[in-house]
Structure formats: structure tokens, C-alpha cells
Amino acid sequence: MDEFELIKKFFDLNKIDSGVVIGIGDDGAVLEPNINKQQVQVIDTLVENIHFPSTIDPADIAYRAVMANLSDIAAMGAIPRWMTLSLTINNKNDKWIESFSKGLFEAAEHYRVSLVGGDLNFAENISVTISISGEVSPSQALLRNGAQIGDSLYVTGTIGDAAGGLELLKKNKPNNELTQRFLRPTPRIKIGRELIGKATAAIDISDGLLGDLKKILVDRNLGVDIQLDLLPISEALSNQFNSHRCYSFALNGGDDYELCFTAKDEDVSNISGITKVGSLNDSGIILCYLQDNIYKFEDESYRHFK
Ligand code: ADP
Ligand code: MG
């Protein structure tokens, strides 16, 4: 199959979307945004052996790539609409592309986002770049920069599972629940929407809680006291690893794609699926406590090209 046949067969598969005036096939897509909405645009690249082991199923590679982007959309409080894909692969194996396409459309249909264009290249290493645009009402996007002294610090879901799952995958001891959290993360779009007008700052956790948390504390004298025994650690994780490792995965492990946000307790008391893990002060530093004792941690959060 040549490139055009591959695109037709595996990527030109959108269901009807009234917002797509011209989709795949022309030089560019023509899209109809809802009136009185602001556009939120995100992009993320996943590269083989850096962001995922080369042994994982192509369907999971595609699914994760969509989720990494949807998680940024969630952290902005937006509703996803359209996506483009730049895919680099290293052979023309139809089976690989078919499986990739399956994972991609499973993710896209589940979160109602349409693939409206892309690019297909052949090179040594597999790389997947996805860009998604979403919509939010004017001035309602959740931002990183509004945290206040006295706010509480919250996270969604459970944290540390993906890092634990990746470790098991690398050791060839996959544990379903944990490895699924790495391969098939859940973007917190619904909670992101609920946080509009309530969270003072929000970010998604892709590099680890401590590392990402710093990004909402920058340029301020803000500090945080985190209570380790409040961290939402799943039973699946604590059944596999001792408590020190669980804390370490929860604080430094990447790939959870949960949200981390700050808010006044009374503003978020009706939202389910969130856990308060600490509170903000004017110390300028992040400290972790276990009962009343300071618990020492290195900041090992994942940073590329460190
Ligand atoms: P151009 O040369 O103008 O960039 P291409 O020949 O690369 O266009 O692509 C033809 C059409 O197919 C375009 O509409 C493009 O957006 C779409 N397309 C190409 N690759 C992909 C892909 N991997 N997924 C979805 N759409 C794609
Ligand atoms: Mg063109």
C-alpha cells in the first residue's frame, strides 16, 4: 500500500462531526468553532524508548499519545474537539499501523475528538506527535498561576500507579491494574470542567507531583506542606511495593496524568474523585511530613535532557 492508501484505510475514519467542514484529504482542515468560545491548543510528542518502551502494543502507543494531550486539555478546563497527528514509523508493516489506528480511534471516539489531518513519515525511530484543540468559555481556562497562601493542595484519582506499572513492565512482570494505568491513563476532563471558577491554579501530573507542583509555585514565596499519609495511593500499588517506594512513585513518578490543583476547601467540597494532600504557606519550599516528622525526598521528577 502506498502512503495515500494507508491514510485512507487507517486514518480517514472519522464519524460525522458537524464542526469539521473539510477533514482529511485537502491541504488543510477547515473547522467551525462554536461561537463565543476560546480555543485551547496543546501538542505532545512521544518518542520510542524515551516516553514508552518499544515493546508495547502499537494500540497502546496511540492511546497514550491521545491521553497525554487530553490531559493537558483537562488541565485547562477545556472540552476537546479536533486533533492532528504526525506519525513517524520505521517500516510499512500494515499490521502495526492497523493496531495503532485502532488504539487511536478507540481513544478519539471515547473522548469525542475528531482526527482532522496529519502527516506520515518513515524514519528509524517511532515518534508520535498529536495536537488537540479544545474549547472553553472566554476567560474560563484553568491556569497555572493563581495559587494563594492558605489554599489547599489537591490531586485527582490515585497517584504513583503509572510509575509502578512502568517499572513492572520493564521487569517483564506486568501487573494488570498498574500497567494499565501506564498504558491507558484516564484524562480528567470531567473534573477539569468542574474546577472552572473554583481551582485557583491547575496542572496535569506528567513528570511527577513534586516537579509539576513547582510549576504552579514559581516566582512566588509560596510553599507547600504535603502530608504523606493523605496521598491517594491505590491498593494495587501498596500491595506491590513498600511504603517508601509508594511515596516515591506518588511524588516523583511521571505518567499518571492526574490533575494537581489548588483551591479553597469550601469551593470544591462537592467535587468527587479528588483528595486534599496538603496546604499552601509562605515558606517558599515544599516539605513532606509523615505524622509530625519531615520526610526527606530527593526531587527525582522526570526531566528530559537534564
Ligand atoms: P500535504 O503533502 O499537503 O502535507 P499529505 O499528502 O501529507 O498532504 O496528506 C494528505 C491528506 O492526508 C492531508 O489532508 C493530511 O492532513 C492527511 N493525513 C496525512 N497523514 C495523516 C495521518 N497520519 N493521519 C491523519 N491524516 C493524515
Ligand atoms: Mg499540501
Throw out a few tags for this protein:
306 residues; alpha+beta; four-stranded mixed sheet; 9 helices; 13 strands; disordered C terminus; binds adenosine-5'-diphosphate; binds magnesium ion
Question: Topology of this protein?
Answer:
Layout: H1 3-10, E1 20-22, E2 30-31, E3 38-47, H2 58-75, E4 79-89, H3 94-110, E5 114-122, E6 127-136, E7 152-156, H4 161-170, H5 176-183, H6 189-194, E8 201-204, H7 209-215, E9 223-227, H8 235-240, H9 243-252, E10 259-263, E11 274-281, E12 286-290, E13 293-294
Parallel strand pairs: 4-5, 9-12
Antiparallel strand pairs: 1-2, 3-6, 4-6, 7-10, 7-11, 8-10, 9-11, 12-13
How is this structure best described in words?
- By secondary structure, the chain is of the alpha+beta class.
- It is built from nine helices and 13 strands.
- It has helices at residues 3-10, 58-75, 94-110, 161-170, 176-183, 189-194, 209-215, 235-240, 243-252, and strands spanning 20-22, 30-31, 38-47, 79-89, 114-122, 127-136, 152-156, 201-204, 223-227, 259-263, 274-281, 286-290, 293-294.
- The strands form three sheets. Strands 8-10-7-11-9-12-13 form a seven-stranded mixed sheet, sandwiched between helices. A four-stranded mixed sheet has the order 3-6-4-5, with helices on one face. A two-stranded antiparallel ribbon has the order 1-2.
- A hairpin with a 7-residue loop joins strand 1 (20-22) and strand 2 (30-31).
- Helix 4 packs across helix 5 (176-183).
- The longest helix has 18 residues, at 58-75.
- The protein is globular.
- The model is unreliable at 302-306 (pLDDT under 50).
- The structure holds adenosine-5'-diphosphate and magnesium ion (MG).
- Adenosine-5'-diphosphate binds next to strand 4 and strand 5.
